[in-house]
Amino acid sequence: PLARQFLAARGIRPDGYRRVAIFDYDDETKVYLERTQGLERMNGLTRGPIRLWRWSHRWFKPQQQEEFRVDVTPAGEVVGFDHEIPEAVPGANLEPAPARQIAEKFLRETMKCDLAGLEFVETQTQKRPARTDHAFTWKQTSVNLGDGSLRIAVGVDGDQVVGYREYVRLPEQWTRDYEKLRSRNQSAQLVAEVFFILLSGAMLIVLVRRLRDRDVPLRLSVGFGLVAAVLYFLGQLNNLPLVEFYYRTTDSYASFLASYVRDGVLVALGVGAWVLFLVAGSEPVYREHYPG
Q1: Which helix or strand (DSSP H or E) is residue 5 part of?
Q2: Cα 191 from chain centroid?
Q3: Residues 207-226: pLDDT tens digits?
């Protein structure tokens, strides 16, 4: 209801649109705050000026570019807004100065921002076929994040506000250092995968030998595989509302659902086959070493 009220105040009524919602946050920002500010200060920041956690509501129509999105915190504050307008839609061709006045009025009257606590950072302008779009960015001067900063961005397409975003701008050096850390994690994962492949090969050898000795409980293994496949597929169906949030409106909704179900079935069969292989290869050895 809060998101709908915000849209209604902007003259937008998303009747006839599909609505999906997810609980969302920026994971890289969360990691940055944890590692640079500490958990205690991060908890204080995310309860105050940095509103990291939010419910993202999206309204869309299949195969229509125009859509709406509103982010609302658990405390009921609107912290994000996006109105996707097709590039060919005509509008005003404003210069940056009057467009910025529209953005500042939106910040002051709609978002209740104190402009005195904001430092203007940059303007980005893009010419469309029948209008001019602008994006303005400010920095929150009252929030000290070291080399990082809390930013506010407002988008103005033609002469109407179509976007509002609060985000933490991460320092480039920290981003590079974090990418190096992730690369070491990925290298460790690669080593683990090599050992996993070797273990799977050894399991296959054991399975072939046990099959030759007719010491494999095939019915039990197939049963475990079927249960795993069914549970995985049900889990995929349960995740459909989350996946639907990222549905691309350039595709037909029917093809989106069909491809999702198809992929879910194929992956479920793969999971079932892996569990069958796991049980068939390990149960005889387990039974032999732990007969009790």
Answers
A1: helix 2-9
A2: 28
A3: 999 999 888 999 999 999 99
